[in-house]
Sequence to fold (868 residues):
Amino acid sequence: MATDRIVGIDLGTTNSLVAYMQGDTPAVIPGEDGSNLVPSVVALDENNQTIVGNSARRSLIETPDRAVYSVKRLMGRGVDDVQEELKLFPFRLADDLQPGEVLRIQLGNRSFNPPEISAFILRQLKRNAERFFGAPVTKAVITVPAYFNDTQRQATKDAGRIAGLDVLRLVNEPTAASLAYGLDKKKNGIIAVYDLGGGTFDISILKLHDGIFEVIATNGDTHLGGDDIDNLLIAVALDDIRGDMGIDLRRNGEAVQAIRKAVIDAKIALSSQPSVKLDLELPGGHHYRREITREMFEQLAQPVIDRTVGPTKQALKDAGLKPEQIDEVVLVGGSTRIPKVRQLVQDIFKRTPHTDLNPDEVVALGAAVQANILGGGSEATKEMLLLDVTPLSLGIEVAGGVTDKIILRNSTIPASATQHYTTQVDGQTNVAIHVLQGERELAKDCRSLARFELKGIPPMPAGMPRIEVKFLIDANGILHVSAREQRSGKESEIEVQPSYGLTDDQVEGMLLESFDFAEEDFRQRQIIEARREADTILAALEKGRKNDAWSKLRTNERNQIGKLETGLRSVKDSDDYQSIRKAIDVLNQATTRLAELMMDTAVATALKGKAMDATNLEEGPAAGHPMAKAEFK
Amino acid sequence: MPGGATSTCWSCGTMRAEHFCSACGKVQPPVPVDYFTFFGLPRKLEINTAQLEKEFYALNRKLHPDVYASAPAQERSWSLEQSSLLNDAYRTLKDPIRRTEYLLRLEGVELEEQSKAATEKARSTGETKKQVVPPDLLEEVFELNMQLEELRAQKKLGEDDPALLEELGKAKMALEEKSGNLMSELQTYWKDWDREFDSSTDENRRKTRDQMVDLINRRNYIRNLVRDVNEALEN
Fold:
């Protein structure tokens, strides 16, 4: 059923994709421009409308203060966490940001939080899919880095909701890739997925067994990727320019973005050629020219690439496996095109990695496979089942600020743990629980997820109440907490204060707002398009009147056209795009015979061997039906 | 059949196995059971882990939330609870130490807290941690702790003493060997326990149980020592 179609979405740091299952094969849905990748860039155009993807990427250079990229780095993070990012990325925080509030990014004179910005990207992908299917799309599977914590996952889910998508499942990116990889091979064995993308690194070790994809261990770094290499290259260029020409461009957003684009192109080129020449025009007519050899590039990138070694070794250790015990290594993410990265993977695992999958698309394709499984499966997927793990240990703060781990990392999810609490004071009715995520011993070194307040405990002497709290990590890797006082059997009320995320009410508010915006956006676009089309047909009619064919029409036909033309002119400037469209359609019909006559005239003229004048050329057979509906989207 | 408990499937009315209906396959409301019962196993310690894995995969195909993605909310919630219970049970039973510790807890034993969290907690609250050094290890532990202190002091000064490092390495290997021996000793207790489970007196069972408690404590103590040595060597 078309309405139940579930799409798979790779919401990437650099690029995002949407895919679906076409029969037994996953396929990426291209955008209007024919491209499979939608750059994860959001910008405001001159009318304060949001634009996404390639068009937004242009404004990144022209109006950098109205555009944002790599927003995934900010998902689920607080102001304190992002100080490092702020030094390296041109993120502008909103001026009126309150302490404790979820981050907001300034774009022009508006500000948005990271889930809202991600929602713009998701909405674009949703639109692409809807155009492709010709039907609404409301359900999706979205991928996240395996090493994303609870807050980052929740933020991604919120983004989906704000975009009007029912997020059926968050799937870990390397795991999704393994689904796409394992789809056509009924293979059993142990595989490692090494996923180095634009902003995140993941390593996952999986056991494939008769269609079951069991993740044994995962590790990673949610702030490590191609972006980091770009930043090093930009820093070198800025230093060069300052040293050689005495120009400090660090505060010049436009110039930095231009340099960024140039070094990214250079980085990509260096994967296939030994050296590349940078040639960049700078403000003030200066030129920055420099040759970068692969050797220089590799020296610069080495420290970034080396940061993947630690997590990889840890994942192997957690899996209890030696590198030789891995049957196949799968590479995912654009940064794995870098020869030095491939070399490193080969050195660690002592085998040539598998590279015949498109590293940019494989995650989205895997998301489509998972979407298909959740939709009930097909012949190709009916035996497939994904058993994933939680990447980080879940703990609670106990006396002395120590973390007591209750669900260990690499536990298969869903996973649960039960803890018992009591009161310290007679008649105490509330108990506070601080939930943490991470591997460190002290609570202050772990990620604070939320503070839960158990309320409504029946007043009893200290130590008497016995409150059972159940912590459950669902298949998305998101935590749920429930509590019950066992003596009274009463469900305790839990008040959750997310440490970094949005509350449900906030998401709900944004959802409504985005519906309003979406509807308004849609209406605006329809009006603009209808007017443009009206102008086209009216202009064509002007020309038609001067054509010989006009005189060949019957009087009542000419009168009818004239009447409908007046009709269209009278509604053209209104905001009622449906009336404009109706007027266009009827005028279009009334002029069909005129169009045919014009074509005949043109053909006849051509056959007579008479030289065609400019008008004829323009409106000759090659131009088709001169009144044809203009194609605007 | 898991647990031996049967009742009537809420959906189709036939008799069912515990977690899903054998007739129509639908997930059933979770019943609070221990991990052994969940897998339909007696409280015995020798487990065929290959068989357990097979069962784990088979049950996951019936209970995993992916199977119920488009089911009504109630079934989705049962599936979530059942599959988390399945995963928790499998994680515990497949590992020899966790399995033994779990059984001992079911038998009412409060295992000595030797986790690192407890150590840190004791350190920060000033309480003395309940930790008894196994008598036969006393001398070794004393020596090892001295060496570790020395190593930490040297590291602070940026010095390097290859002889000390070598000794620590040797001590670590000896501890690991001891730990390995304890594992094979544990397996003989498993056999005792499983045999006594069916036929023996409470007194015999209690004896075996206490032997296992002692062994687990010693093993955890050694594990912590190895961890300390590793940390000192790495830092």
